[in-house]
Description:
The structure is a single chain. Helix content is 35%, strand content 24%. By secondary structure, the chain is an alpha/beta fold. The strands form 2 sheets. A 7-stranded mixed β-sheet has the order 3-2-1-4-5-6-7, with helices on one face. A two-stranded antiparallel ribbon has the order 8-9. Strand 4, helix 4 (97-102) and strand 5 form a beta-alpha-beta unit. Helix 1 (15-25) crosses helix 6. The longest helix is centred in the last third of the chain and has 24 residues, at 170-193. The radius of gyration is 17 Å and the shape is globular.
Amino acid sequence: MSSIKIAVFASGHGSNCRALYEAIISGKLNAEIGLIVSNNPDAGVLTWAKEKELAHIHISSEQFDDKLQFHHALLRHLALHHIQMIVLAGYMKKIGLPLIEAYPNKILNIHPALLPSFGGKGMYGEHVHKAIIDYGAKITGVTVHLVDPEYDHGAIVMQKALEVSENDTPQTLAQRVLALEHQTYYRALQLFAENKVIIKDRKVFLSRNI
Length: 210
């Protein structure tokens, strides 16, 4: 089985990127990280990528006169590295339409809640976990979904749940949910590597031979 070549987009430490890398090294994920992309020149994920001798770039729209130039440059880098799928791992920029059109149903994101609840613009990081605790929700989790032009709106590929403890703070809940992200993201991506994902009418179905 041939591996799938991915680009990982991250803006910070890149813990999900590192977890995917470990899943690849351990043989749990049949993929290759062909490129790591960050909009933040000081992102820890870039330092880590250099240590691991993985191809990486800092590129952001602020470096260009307009968004069209930015997207053209970004797509050139992705083509140069023969990228088949894009995986968002704490990438703090909205994905533009040119990228979505170039990689239809080939851009994945992971959200730290059970969508469609607690999603949308501004719902990231501890903002999500605070909202969940303030609401009094008893169950939370993670959602892996395809990316479309709206925040946290694309078709859901996989979800995993965990209970919210009465003693949870946004910080403790964030830690537990992040651990669940690391256990879930590579499994969702592996479904694509094995060609087990069927997309029809903007919904995701899994082939029966899983």
